[in-house]
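Quick one, C-alpha cells below:
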C-alpha cells in the first residue's frame, strides 16, 4: 500500500472533491503511479479528520474519472494510463432531480433499476451526524444583536479564566438544569465544545499507557484521542440497553482501567439508552475499582425522559460533559464539564494547557441565547426535526425500519443491520456509487477484530454489528432525505451480486 496523503491546503468546496482532485493531481505529477494502492478509507478519514463516507465519495469520484479501479473491500488502486476512461462511471446529470419512484424490487422485469437511474442522482451525504440547520443562522443573528454593550465587549476580547467567566458558567448551569442536571456554577468549566471538554478531562485523569474502557462500539473521536494520547482503549460488550454491567466488571478486573467513557443516553451509533438499574450497577462497580466515569451527554436533550446522569449515582467518581453543538449550533463550540469538586482544578489546568480557554465572545453569545429562550427554542426545533425525519424514515423503509435503531424514533440517526448476503464495505461502496454516503459499522469498533471484552456474557438482544449508521437530520431538506432513503431501501432489497454489477 502506498503511504500517500493528499495536500488539501487551500482547497475550497466539498472535501470529497478536494481529495479526488488531489488524487488526479498527484497521478499527473508522478507521485502516484499505476498499481499504487490508496490508503484504506477508514485510515485516510482518520488522518484527514473527515468522515469515512467523505473518503468513500472521493474514491468513487476518482473511479468515475477513470483514475482508480479495484473492488470495494479489497482495495483501491491507481489505474494504468492506457486503461483510464475504460472503466469510468458516467458523470451525474446536471439540473434538478426528477421525482424518484421506489419500486418493490425493479421498475420493469429484467431491468436493473440502478443501472438506469442510480448514477444520475446527486451525492447525498448521510454520514455526518449534524443537527438540522433550519433557523440556526436567524437564531444566531438575533443573539449577536444583543452583543452591543461596548463596556462588556472590552472585557470579552481579552484573555479569561480557562474555565470561563462567572456569569457564563452561571448561564451554563441554568441550561443544564433544564436538562435535569443540577450543578453549582463554581463546579462547572466551559470548554471549546464537548470534544475540547473530553480532551481536558482525559488529560487530567489519565497518563500515557493507561487503559480506558468504553462501549464495544464507540465515538471514533474517542478512539483517535486515545491513540494520540498513548492510551489503550478497550471496548466492553453491550446489548440493546447499552453496556452490560457484568462485562464492565470483568473488564475492570482484567485491565484495571483509569477511566471509562460512556454515552448512556442516545448512544452513538446504536441509539441505546442505558437503564437506570444498569447506571446504578456500573457506578457501584466503578466505585469499587476506583475508575473515573466520563459521561458524554451531547445527545441527551433528545431524550428528556431518560434516567438521571451517571453523576447522580457516583457523584465522587463521575464527570459529566455536554455541549450546545447538537441542540443549538455546532459553530458555537461551547461545551460544559461538571465533575467532583476535588477534580475540577485539574480539569481547568488541563484546559489551560491544551486549549487555553473557552472563547469569551462565544460564551457571551451562548449566555444571551440561553437567557432569551432562543437556545431552548433551537433544542425543540432539533427534537421536532429528528422526530419528523424518523417518521419519514419509517414510511420510506417500511419493514426495514427498526425503531430500536433510532432511539425510539427520536435520534438523529439510524443504526441499520445489513443482510448477511452483503459484505459491509461492498454495501457502503455500492451506496457511494449511487451517490449516497453512510458510515460503515466498523468505524465504531474499538477492539481489533471487533471482539468486545465480556462478549461471552449472555444477552437477550445483542446489538447488530454488521450494520451502517444512517444520519437523517443533516440533509438540507426532506426531499433529499426521501431520495437517499429510497436508494438505501432499494439496495437493501437487492441481492448483493445483482447490485454490485454496476460498480
Amino acid at each position: 500500500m502506498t503511504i500517500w496523503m493528499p495536500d488539501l491546503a487551500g482547497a475550497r468546496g466539498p472535501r470529497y472533491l478536494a481529495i479526488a482532485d488531489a488524487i488526479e493531481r498527484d497521478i499527473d505529477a508522478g507521485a502516484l503511479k499505476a498499481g499504487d494502492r490508496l490508503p484504506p478509507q477508514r485510515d485516510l478519514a482518520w488522518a484527514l479528520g473527515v468522515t469515512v463516507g467523505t473518503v468513500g465519495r472521493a474514491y468513487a469520484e476518482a473511479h468515475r474519472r477513470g483514475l482508480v479501479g479495484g473492488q470495494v473491500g479489497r482495495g483501491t488502486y491507481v489505474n494504468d494510463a492506457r486503461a483510464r476512461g475504460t472503466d469510468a462511471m458516467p458523470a451525474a446529470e446536471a439540473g434538478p432531480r426528477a421525482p424518484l419512484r421506489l419500486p418493490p424490487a425493479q421498475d420493469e422485469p429484467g431491468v436493473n433499476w440502478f443501472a438506469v437511474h442510480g448514477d444520475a442522482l446527486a451525492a447525498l451525504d448521510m454520514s455526518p451526524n449534524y443537527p438540522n440547520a433550519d433557523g440556526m443562522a436567524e437564531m444566531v443573528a438575533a443573539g449577536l444583536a444583543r452583543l452591543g454593550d461596548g463596556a462588556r465587549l472590552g472585557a470579552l476580547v481579552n484573555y479569561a479564566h480557562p474555565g470561563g467567566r462567572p456569569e457564563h458558567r452561571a448561564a451554563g448551569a441554568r441550561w443544564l438544569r433544564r436538562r435535569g442536571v443540577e450543578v453549582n456554577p463554581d463546579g462547572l468549566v466551559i470548554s471549546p465544545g464537548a470534544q475540547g471538554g473530553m480532551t481536558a478531562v482525559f488529560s487530567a485523569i489519565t497518563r500515557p499507557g493507561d487503559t480506558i474502557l468504553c462501549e464495544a462500539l464507540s465515538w471514533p473521536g474517542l478512539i483517535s484521542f486515545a491513540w494520540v494520547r498513548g492510551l489503550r482503549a478497550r471496548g466492553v460488550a453491550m446489548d440493546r440497553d447499552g453496556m452490560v454491567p457484568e462485562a464492565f466488571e470483568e473488564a475492570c478486573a482484567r485491565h484495571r482501567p483509569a477511566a471509562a467513557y460512556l454515552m448512556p443516553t442516545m448512544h452513538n451509533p446504536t441509539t441505546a439508552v442505558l437503564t437506570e438499574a444498569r447506571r446504578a450497577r456500573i457506578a457501584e462497580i466503578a466505585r469499587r475499582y476506583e475508575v473515573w466515569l466520563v459521561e458524554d451527554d451531547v445527545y441527551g436533550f433528545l431524550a428528556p425522559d431518560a434516567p438521571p446522569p451517571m453523576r447522580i449515582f457516583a457523584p465522587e467518581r463521575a464527570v459529566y460533559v455536554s455541549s450546545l453543538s447538537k441542540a443549538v449550533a455546532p459553530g458555537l463550540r461551547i461545551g460544559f464539564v461538571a465533575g467532583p469538586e476535588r477534580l475540577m482544578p485539574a480539569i481547568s489546568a488541563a484546559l489551560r494547557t491544551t486549549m487555553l480557554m473557552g472563547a469569551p465572545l462565544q460564551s457571551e453569545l451562548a449566555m444571551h441565547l440561553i437567557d432569551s429562550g432562543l437556545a431552548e427554542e433551537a433544542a425543540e426545533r432539533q427534537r421536532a426535526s429528528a422526530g419528523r425525519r424518523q417518521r419519514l424514515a419509517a414510511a420510506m423503509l417500511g419493514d426495514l425500519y427498526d425503531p430500536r435503531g433510532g432511539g425510539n424514533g427520536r435520534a438523529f440517526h439510524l443504526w441499520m443491520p445489513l443482510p448477511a448476503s452483503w459484505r459491509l464495505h461492498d454495501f457502503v461502496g455500492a451506496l457511494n456509487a449511487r451517490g449516497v454516503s453512510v458510515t460503515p459499522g466498523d468505524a465504531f469498533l474499538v477492539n481489533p477484530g471487533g471482539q468486545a471484552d465480556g462478549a461471552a456474557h449472555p444477552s437477550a438482544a445483542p446489538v447488530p454489528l454488521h450494520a451502517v449508521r444512517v444520519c437523517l437530520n443533516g440533509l438540507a431538506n426532506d426531499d433529499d432525505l426521501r431520495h437517499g432513503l429510497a436508494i438505501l431501501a432499494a439496495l437493501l432489497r437487492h441481492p448483493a451480486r445483482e447490485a454490485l454489477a454496476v460498480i
